[in-house]
Amino acid sequence: MGRQLFLHHYMPALYFGILLLGVGFDLLTIKLVNRKRLMAASLFIFSVIYVYRCFIPITYAEPWTQSLCENAKWRSSWDFDCAQYHQNLEDYKIKKPLVIEGLNKVREAVNSYLGHAQQAKVVEGVNVISDKLSLSLTETSSLEEDLSATGTTQLD
Asked: What does the pLDDT look like over 106-135, one tens digit per residue?
């Protein structure tokens, strides 16, 4: 296995690259009229948005077709696997939207956190004193009976 590269290793270079981009644009267009500088800046911004939109399926794993993947290979040396994508976008249709499934998981987690879910029962081997568990009077008496039957000390 070779050297591992992580995204955070490139953050300082990205920061300085963005700063140098502004300085370079200013140096290249300093002799232009403001209207032409604005047009050059808007052309650059629209080209960045275009490239972003072309490659967004790779970055964010959005649906993509095999033909769009092949068209996105601008150079012959680029080697991404277009066979993993479907032939058309209708093949990506799923029965249950992921948003609804995610909302159900969030609802279950909130209910569990707020105590609306089924409460956990006391099991053997739990140290009630050090874990600071609060038990009702009936649970305490049944737990004391279990403890005395096993020969351990009683609860205070």
From this structure: 788 787 777 654 554 555 555 555 455 555
Measured CA to CA, the distance from residue 140 to residue 122 in angstroms comes to: 10
Other CB atoms within a 10 A radius of the CB of residue 80 amount to 13
Sign of CA dihedral 107, 108, 113, 116: positive
Torsion of CA 106, 107, 110, 116, to 10 degrees: -150
Q: With H, G, I as helix, E, B as strand and everything else as coil, classify residue 11.
A: helix
Q: CA Rg, the chain, in Å?
A: 31
Say what angle helices 11-28 and 34-60 make with each other, to 10 degrees: 150
Query: How many Å apart are CA 134 and CA 4, to the nearest integer?
Result: 49
pTM above 0.85? Answer: no
